[in-house]
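1st attempt posting a full record on here, be nice pls
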Amino acid sequence: MDITLVGISHKTAGVGVRERFAFAQEELAAALPRFGGAAVLLSTCNRTEVYLTAHHAIAPASVIALLREMKGGDDVPDDAFYHLAGLKAARHLYRVAAGIDSMVLGESEILGQVRTAFAAATSAGTHNAVLSQLFHTAIRTGRKARSDTRIGRHAVSISSTATRLAANTVGDLSSCAVLVVSAGEAGKLTARSLADHGVSKLWVTSRTASRAKELARDLGGKQVPFSRLAATMADADIVITSSAAPGFLINRQHVAQAMARRNGRPLVLIDIAVPRDIDPAVREHANVHLYDIDDLQRQVEQNKNARRQEVAKVERIIDAAVKQFGGWMSQRGVVPTVGSLRERAEATRKAEIARTFKRLKDLTPKQRDGVEAMTSAIVKKLLHEPIGRLKGDDGERYVVAVRELFNLDDEALAQTQDTVSGA
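the predicted structure (as tokens):
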């Protein structure tokens, strides 16, 4: 039994193509059985991949055709899809689960998505022992990559980096208050990131009251008048701004007024605007920490480099996992073959012994036992070398040849056993 993978991802197609082949969670129950056997379907914003197993070769074109039938996309070229088989498919899934095949290197969401994909296959009844072993080992590999390396410990987006810097400065975010000032899209993402970390309060203000109201609704915060900017800053721990204003929205006076009421508590200012919203001179105030877009981008690049340095460590973890999985797969073919070979040899020995004893009816019980022992020893010695080869590191390559040479299919074995029974 072999593994086949057919997929499309951010490495081979743009979002306009990928989204056409995306499967919602509620679609999986109906989609999975259509692949006609054991199948797992992994569908995220960056990839759609089908993992299949069969005793015969699976034509990638047939899988692509089925995906097109289910999702359309006849105009999508074949080279938007990729195909891997055997341990190459296993290695790919391990890299996906470890986060090193993702658009954002080391991202953590994919591990949960791999787990969800296999759970859907289990619910649909399209899993088997091979896919179960493959996905469970992939999940373990993904966890090990994150626990044994720092691949997921460095923020690599503006919003996550800003959140990490804020947390490093003020400590526990759950007790912090955040003020969002006229935030554009990047500011919204940062505010949402902070909200996801459980900040206690979130205020929104803007020179335009209607915009502040809209932002507050979008972010789940409370609107405050722009005239109370300095006063609200005095109560906030983190201030985020990313407007399109032509000049500074926050100057030294605003910050001086706020800090006068903070009793030395640190204030984090995150300015993601271009041109900048906050006068860089505010850094002169004690306990004021200002991060502008250049500061954040430099930190993002440093973190990306740090994650890239971890990739080699992750690859070594994956190498070990692939080797172990390959050994497991080999044993799946080797163990039954060794058993069948021994069964065939023993059945043949017993059939010949039975015919011999019919001709030599005058043999004493002791002589019969001697013949039994001798023939058993001969069979054992003859099988010693081939079984040793089968159980070796490269034993899998002998499986097909041994099964063909000794005719070890189920029907042939059954005929041999029937011969013994009738002897």
